[in-house]
Design a protein that fits this description.
306 residues, single chain, binds magnesium ion, ten-stranded mixed β-sheet, binds adenosine monophosphate, four-stranded parallel β-sheet, alpha/beta, DHBP synthase, 2 domains
Length: 306
């Protein structure tokens, strides 16, 4: 089997593959499989969930995943494939796992230019969530050997596409609101973007621009109170279980599988956040180990409330 076909088969089966892109090497998983996406967070060892960029194989993949507008069409025509990521409003029935966007109503999308990345996307026929292929807190890898040194034992395949041409991350441009806003500066400049769609604000210097998603505490809080480490539900409360919980309204993972719990987390909190039915959400204890750290971080933010 060719390396491309092998990579595509592993991805479709829910595995993790490091892929070359023109910016940095990405740690890819099928964005439609929550457990595969949860493995990305586990392997990177990040103690919290941050939204991931979803890589697409063509302009025509976008309409199923997110709402597009004229600004997107004009910019994608010029800069795709390439190092420009768009943050768009996700479709209600987007097949992408909610874990990918860490529960946000938006989705970050990019079409990479590296020929191997394109071949793998075409062969897999799945949108691929892929942050940089390094452990949390270490520098982004621009060669396959960097990935092997950092993650070699923990992932299923590394596709060597040589050194990355650009070597810095993509520009992240938020188009969810009326003002186009740069959330992260990168290889495509604000001037290049402004030449096509007019003035662009910068989230770093401009208070009118959206902040980085990690700072949007309100996005992480349900509208009803949430209690962590609750041994049982009080009258009126929904019960979000973990492990054996006969009284659970919903269960993050009846078998106590932390990857499954991570994959279910955002969707289940959203489903239980229903003031007409519940006065609050009582969440069973989730172990503080591995990806359980990120789950507890998210629950802590949700419990803090608005
Ligand atoms: P990396 O994982 O290194 O590729 O970085 C992903 C970047 O995209 C981070 O700066 C994220 O904050 C940003 N990002 C991804 N998804 C979203 C989203 N839905 N909304 C806003 N920013 C996003
Ligand atoms: Mg990174």
């Amino acid at each position: 089997m060719s390396i491309v076909a092998n990579a595509a088969a592993i991805l479709r089966a829910g595995g993790l593959v490091a892929i070359p892109t023109e910016t940095v090497y990405g740690l890819a998983a099928d964005a439609t499989q929550g457990k595969a996406v949860a493995r990305i967070f586990e392997v990177k060892g990040r103690p919290s969930f941050n939204p991931l960029i979803v890589h697409v194989g063509g302009h025509d993949w976008v309409a199923d995943l997110a709402h597009v507008d004229d600004r997107f069409a004009r910019l994608a025509k010029v800069f795709w494939p390439g190092p420009l990521t768009f943050v768009l409003n996700r479709r209600d029935r987007s097949p992408v796992s909610e874990l990918v966007s860490a529960g946000l109503p938006s989705l970050a999308l990019r079409m990479p230019a590296h020929p191997l990345a394109q071949d793998i996307l075409s062969a897999a026929q799945r949108p691929l969530a892929a942050p940089s292929a390094n452990r949390s807190g270490t520098v982004s890898p621009t060669r396959a050997a960097h990935v092997a040194a950092s993650l070699g034992d923990a992932i299923d395949l590394i596709v060597d596409g040589g050194p990355c041409r650009v070597g810095i991350e993509s520009t992240v441009l938020d188009l969810t609101g009326p003002a186009a806003a740069i959330l992260r500066p990168g290889a495509v400049t604000a001037e290049e973007i402004a030449a096509i769609v007019g003035p662009v604000v910068s989230a770093e210097s401009d208070s009118a621009a959206p902040k980085s998603p990690g700072q949007l505490a309100a996005h992480y809080a349900p509208s009803i109170p949430l209690r962590m480490n609750a041994s049982d539900a009080r009258p009126g409360e929904a019960r979000l279980g973990f492990g054996a919980s006969p009284d659970a309204t919903l269960n993050l993972s009846a078998s106590g599988d932390l990857l499954e719990a991570a994959a279910n987390l955002f969707g289940m909190i959203r489903a239980l956040d229903d003031p007409a039915r519940f006065a609050g959400i009582a969440v069973a204890p989730v172990p503080l180990a591995g990806i359980g750290l990120a789950i507890n971080d998210r629950l802590t933010r949700a419990a803090r409330g608005r």
